[in-house]
Structures are given as C-alpha cells and as structure tokens.
Amino acid sequence: MNKARCIPVTYLNPTYDVCVVGIETTIDIYRSFPSGADSFDVRGTSCLDVIIVYNPRNVNKPQSGGKWPLNKGIKVLVSPTKASNILNDSKVKVRYYGSEGKELGSSMLYLTNVAISLDVDIFRTGTVTQGVRGKDTWSWGPGGKGAILLVNCDSDRNNSLVPDSEDAGPPTSSDVKDMSPMILTAEGPDDIFDDYKVYLRISSLDSTRLRVYQKRRYQYAKVLGKDQTLYEVKRDNLDEITFYVEGLEFPDADFSGLVYIELIFQKGNSKSDKFVPRHESKIFTEQVVFRVAPWIMTPNTQKPLDVYVCNIKTNTEFLKLIKNFTDKARCPLNMVTYSENRGDQWIQDEMEFGYTEAPHKRFPVVLDSPRNRGLKNFPASEVLGPDFGYVTREPKNSNTVNTLDSFGNLEVSPPVVVGGKSYPLGRILIGDGMSKDNMRMNKVLRDFLQAQQVQSPILLYSTWLYVGHIDEFMSFVPAPNKKGFRLLLASPLACLELFRKKQKEGHGGAVMFKGLGKKEYTIDDILSSETLKKSSEACQENIDMNRKIMKKQLGLSEEDIIDIPMLYKCEPDMKDAESFFPNMVNMLVLGNYLGIPKPFGPLIAGTCCLEEKVRSLLEPLGLSCNFIDDFATYHELLGEVHCGTNVVRKPFSFKWWECVI
Asked: How many domains is the chain built from?
C-alpha cells in the first residue's frame, strides 16, 4: 500500500512535481506562506480533483467564493483524473489572505500527471481487468478476487523431457498461452520517463517460483526470475506493455501458493541508473498477487478420456480383454510397449492423472510416483508433452520409498458435503499405518497433496494388507442417487454370508477356481477353514475401521455403501493380507462400464455365484458389469485390473477458486 505523499509548496517560487492518476496527494500549504496570512483558497485546473479535508466540528465550510481558515488543521489533497499530454499542464494555485481579506501572496504548483498501474486478471474472467485497486489480496469463494498462475509444467518449449518450468530457454508463442498476462500502464508525456523510472520487483524467494517475460522483436525475453529480482521497464514511448507470468512450483509445505510482483514508480537516481529504494523518491508503488493453481485429482465418477495399460509380452490375452472392454465403453486405449515399461505392468502405481486450471487455460498433469521401477521414465518421456503437464515429488533419501508411495494407495472421492461443509472437488484418500506400525506415505508426497488445499486429504488404514494399497478394499462407482456415486467396500462378512446361503441351498460342493489348473476349493472347504474364518474376521475389522472413517469424513450413510463379497488370507499374526480370489473392488471404472476382475467363484448351474451377486448389487444402478480374467498375469502377482490400468479423466466443471477454504 502506498504511504501518503506530501508535496510542500511555497509562495516564494513555483513548485514542480508528478502525481499519479486516481491517487490522492497532500499539498502542504503550511510550510511556507506570507506573514500575516490567516486564510486561503485553492483552485485546480480541469484534470485535477481538489479535495478539502476538515473537521466540521471545528470548521464551518465557507460559502461559495469564501475562504478557509489557515489555523484549523485543514488538509488539501489533489487527485488527477487523467494523464497529462505535456509536462506541467496541470496547475494548483493557493492564495493566502490577511485579516481584512487582502491577498498577501500565492503558491503555484505545476503537476505532470501520470496514469500508472500494474493489472492482472483480478476477477478471474480470463482477461486482464484494468484500472482497479486492491490487487494485492487474494480471496477464495464465488465472490473471491485475485489473479491465478499456472505452473508451466507441460512441454511446449523444446519438446524436451523436462517441463517448461524447468527449461531456462525462451518460451514459444504456444508456450506463452500457458502464462498469465500482466499489463503495465505508464501513460503520460514521454519526457517525464527520462527523469522518473518504472521498476518491477519480486522477492528473492518468489524468484524461484515465477518468471516474467516481455515480448521483444524476435522472442520473449525473461525480465524477472532466478537471479533477476528487479527490472527497469524501458517504456519505449508505449502507454501499455504486456508481460507474461509463468509459475514454476506448485504449492507445497513451504509454499502457500501466493506470489507477488511489485510496481515501483520513482524519481531517477542522479548520476546512476542503479536502483536505490529511497522512500522520498518514490511516487507510487503497487503490488499484485497471484495464487498458483493447485494440482487436482479426478475420481472414478468423472468421464474417462484415455486408458493406459502395459504390454509386458506375457499378458496378451488380458490386453485383448481390456481392448474389448474399452471399445465397449468407447474410450481410447493406449498400449505402453515393453521398451517403455521394461516389464513393469503396474501402471496405476507409477502415476496419477490430474489437472491444473486457470481462467485462461487448463491442461492435464501427471503426478509421477517416486517408486521408480520399470515405468519410472514413462511419465516424463511419454506422457509429458504439449498441454500435458508433469510433476513429481521425490524424497531426499530414496531408501525411504515404500509400497505406500505407489499410487494404488492414492484415491479421491467424488464431490461430497460433510457436516455442512462442501468439498466440490472431492477429498483425497491416502493409505497409512494409522499409528499401528511405522509405515507411511513419504512426507514429501503427503505435504504436497495437503498443500493443494482444495481436496483435503483423509488417511485410511491400509498396512494390514501385504501390498498396503487402499484400492484393494475400496472403489467408487457412479450411481443415480443424490450424491451421484456409491462407495464399494470389500467385505469378507458378505462373502461368507453368501457362501453360507448357497451351502444351505445345497450347493456346498460348488467349486471355486475350476479349470484354472490351481488348487480348487468348494464352498464347504472354505466355510470349514478355521484359517480363512480368522482371516476374514480380522480383515473385516480393519475394513470396518475404514468404513467408519469414510462415513464420518465423506459424510456417507450406510445407503451410500455397497458391500462387495471378498475373502483375504493372512499370515498367522493376522497381517499381510492377500486377496484369496481376484479382488472385485479393484476394478476399472469407465463411465457406467465396470471392468471387474473375474473372481472364478463357485459355479452353480454354470454361473459364478460371486459374479451373480455383484451383478445384482450394481446393475440396478445402471452399471454394466464386465468380468475380466486377470488371474495369471495380475492376481497371482498380488494385483488386479485397477492396478494394471490407468485413466485420464475429464476435469471438473467446478472451478477450484470458488471453493470455500
């Protein structure tokens, strides 16, 4: 905020100075006036508003043509209404009078008026709004104000393997479209800018978080950024100059997301062009603030745009089934070749798709996991590209990376309302040890997800599982209810109840895993197994714990949850649970089409009773259940369909800046 300027005038000789349009400046009429003067009047030319500030309890406003008393603490302010055409074309005259009304002398102030401002898209319309003040604050919500900055994390610049934000080269014309425009207005006589300088300045901290470019004849030149915290603007007789601001970092634990750019207009330093921030030489300062747009995850309920799956040479039949399924769902399928995946089929664990958005631009962004197995180069080498961004968070010590850092352990709910508080972009879900053991997702990842603010993360207990990922016991599917979705939870209890029902109906001899060449189990075998019974009870207890958390943190009722039959087998200590048969909640959701791991459950009259049960639960919701055989190539390696696929989804129509935080 500008500290009020004061221009002293004297009756002994004229005074010359500069004022800024729309900014009130005090005229000090008391420093030098004729002896014996006890009143005054003041007049200004047409481009000036002259304002008299007084206390009506002490001073009576004079009638037209009357005079103001000199000794009552009256202040005189001037505020230019338009920029000057020539030097000194605005005038203020103060005339002083003695006790008998005789004029004793006068002071003349000659002003050159400059219209100067730094403007951004404060109203979030996609275009710069000029001529408004209060650009140094940022607020959330439908009526919020403040500009937005994208992290320029796609690769338009040199088609390289690094995001543009990490590329120090000059931007291209397409690259500039990712940046937020900022307009500097410096209107006034050209000569005034020989003696008065215009600067843009950023803090040394913000210099690592943003860059500012100005278009020159042949390229966009960087004027602010790393090692460039101050820029003297060469006006070149232009009243308006457009700059382009590029974000470099997403919000994080040590970065709130707010960055600032300061405009300084001050009298030049004699005998030197070196900037010296002296208050007495400053005519005007202004600051604009940007909030860096967050990275946003998309839930299963968002429309699918692209599906990814890995070709590892041994999963040919699985790929055919996935292709048939994606064709049915009318969703493009991208096959990741063996040379790209190096035998790593767990593409869900490697990356998570999301997006970032500003009023002027939106593009998808892939978050790359630090797991760094065979697919470690794929997100940067094949996904990153023009209008497709990339971000990652790696712990300093790679030895701290664990299974919870894989993104089968990272999900997001559809939009929810919890206790009257709305989460229009859903809430992120992270598997955790919940103080029961020492395992956690790495702090750098948890901090990053928390810092985005708009999808307030929730911790779930997942380390009771051998792999430890939350997609082994939960999923969301679209539904035609008020919330628009249902939560699917794996349920050992529901599975045992189903099997007991079938046993009572005389189907205890129905065989599971028939024709797979594996050990087969009848319903009677399963229900008589003390080990499976204990495992089921222990796993159900852990799932119920998560059920309770999600009901509270997502505002769910029992009607919003569907129990999907599932059994787990555990170690004797009831930890390290693994799916006993292909885990049906670990599914691929493409709109109303569900790609569900084929469970190979007990066959009754030629029909799998597990498939039949799941159809009865989900098909009334308008969902199409498609069972996919992943037994040999995924299930036996402790994963399922969801683990082996990944989906780019349509961003939310809701604008994140309208969240109430």
From this structure: 3
Question: Do 95 and 148 reside in the same domain of the chain?
Answer: no
- Residue 215 β-bridge partners: 220
Which residue numbers are catalytic? Answer: 643
pLDDT at residue 131, as a whole number: 84
For residues 495 and 565, the answer to whether their CB atoms sit within 8 Å is yes
Helix axes 492-502, 609-618, angle to 10 degrees: 120
The span from the CA of 390 to the CA of 152, in Å, is 9
Structure confidence at residue 573 (pLDDT): 78
Q: Which CATH number goes with the domain that contains 631?
A: 3.75.10.10
**Domain of residue 68, CATH code:** 2.60.40.1860
Q: Residue 277: its pLDDT value, please?
A: 57
Contact 309, 644 (CB under 8 A): yes
Q: How many CB atoms lie within 10 A of CB 638?
A: 16
Compute the average pLDDT of residues 596-600. 98
Query: What's the confidence (pLDDT) of residue 232?
Result: 95
Shared domain for 537 and 425, answered yes or no, is yes
Residues with Cβ within 8 Å of 479's Cβ and at least 6 positions away in sequence, in order, are 485, 486, 621, 622, 623
Q: Are 588 and 647 in contact (CB under 8 A)?
A: yes
Work out the burial of residue 514: count CB atoms within 10 Å of its CB; fewer than 13 is exposed, 13-18 middle, 19 or more buried: middle
| The pTM of the whole model exceeds 0.90 | yes
* 78 contact partners, CB below 8 Å, separation of at least 6: 19, 24, 25, 27, 44, 48, 49, 50, 51, 92, 111
Q: What are phi and psi of 131, to 5 degrees?
A: 85, 20
DSSP class of 379: I
Residues 6 or more apart whose Cβ sits within 8 Å of residue 561: 486, 487, 488, 489, 547, 551
Structure tokens at 207: 């210099």
User: What backbone torsions phi and psi does residue 540 show, to the nearest 5 degrees?
Assistant: -65, -40
Rounded to the nearest 5°, which phi and psi values hold at 334? Answer: -110, 120
Distance (Å, whole) CA 11 – CA 18: 19
- Distance in angstroms (rounded) separating the CA atoms of residues 654 and 645: 27
Mean pLDDT of the chain: 95
State the first-to-last Cα distance of the chain, in angstroms, to the nearest integer.
26
Residues 545 and 425 in one domain: yes
Does 190 fall in a domain?
yes
Among 292, 322, 344, the domain boundary falls at: 292
The kind and range of the H/E element at 645 are strand 645-649
Tens digits of residue pLDDT in 331-381: 999 999 999 999 999 999 999 999 999 999 999 999 999 999 999 999 999
Residues 394-403, mean pLDDT to the nearest whole number: 93
pLDDT digits (tens, 9 = 90+) for 192-212: 999 999 999 999 999 999 999
Residue 625 vs residues 9, 130, 477, 584, 621: alpha-carbon distances, Å: 85, 54, 11, 11, 11
Q: What is the 3-class SS of 563-623, one letter each residue? A: EEECCEECCCCCCCEEECCCCCCCCEEECCEEEEECCCCCEECCEEHHHHHHHHHHHHHCC
Give the separation between CA 355 and CA 369, rounded to whole angstroms.
16
Domain of 404 in residue numbering reads as 296-658
Query: Would residue 332 count as lying in a domain?
Result: yes
Based on the domain organization, do 263 and 360 belong to the same domain? no
Per-residue model confidence (pLDDT) at position 191: 92
319 and 225 together in one domain: no
Q: Decide if 127 is inside a domain.
A: yes
Q: 1 in a domain, yes or no?
A: no
Token pair of 368, please? Answer: 């790359």
Cα 363 to its chain centre, rounded Å, is: 12
Residues in the chain: 661
